[in-house]
Design a protein that fits this description.
Structural class: alpha+beta
Protein name: Sporulation lipoprotein, YhcN/YlaJ family
CATH topology of one domain: Alpha-Beta Plaits
InterPro entries: Spore_lipoprot_YhcN/YlaJ, Spore_lipoprot_YhcN/YlaJ-like
CATH architecture of one domain: 2-Layer Sandwich
Organism: Alkaliphilus peptidifermentans DSM 18978
Keywords: Lipoprotein
Shape: rod-shaped
Pfam family, one: Spore_YhcN_YlaJ
């Protein structure tokens, strides 16, 4: 009789153990981390197509800013140029210049050619260069450059950049 009670007791413990482990809730997995707001898919942001594939969009933007700074430093070394602002998108450089008084504030063909040559020598990835000394266009290029330096993606300026290219390079 004692062994029968022991057997029932063991069966009861076994059933209780199976029920306790079988009715447990599934293991909860941690919730996926929220998407990094600084990370943007390549289709959503205009990135430098010549940047290495392992480069993040923020790094590509920083690379564009470094390249633009190099171009600015090279362009302002020209005796006709007082100051310059550059925005690079893909393989196009938009160059806004303020000229010295010797050139009467106009970009003639000779000065424009000099600036284009300096830009292409400074950055071999640039295929098209658009140059303007028009104060309105220069101001718009400066605004885009300032916002891009603050981290705003160039894709936010897509229409404005296209319009600037059309205004700076008729027939483009």
């Amino acid at each position: 009789m004692k062994s029968k009670k022991l057997l029932i007791f063991l069966c009861f413990i076994l059933i209780l153990g199976i029920a306790a482990t079988g009715c447990r809730r599934p293991v909860e997995r941690p919730a996926p981390a929220p998407a990094d707001p600084r990370r943007v898919e390549p289709n959503q942001e205009m990135t430098d197509r010549n940047a290495p594939m392992n480069m993040q969009p923020g790094e590509a933007m920083q690379d564009l800013n470094i390249r633009a700074d190099r171009i600015v430093n090279a362009v302002v070394k020209l005796e006709e140029v007082r100051s310059a602002t550059v925005v690079i998108t893909d393989n196009i450089a938009l160059v806004g210049v303020s000229l010295t008084e010797d050139t009467q504030g106009e970009v003639n063909t000779e000065v424009k050619k000099k600036i284009e040559d300096v830009v292409r020598r400074t950055d071999r990835n640039i295929e098209r260069v658009s140059v303007s000394a028009d104060p309105d266009i220069v101001q718009r290029i400066e605004n885009i450059s300032t916002e891009a330096t603050r981290g705003r993606p160039l894709s936010g300026f897509g229409r404005e950049i296209e319009e600037l290219i059309r205004r700076m390079t008729p027939g483009a």
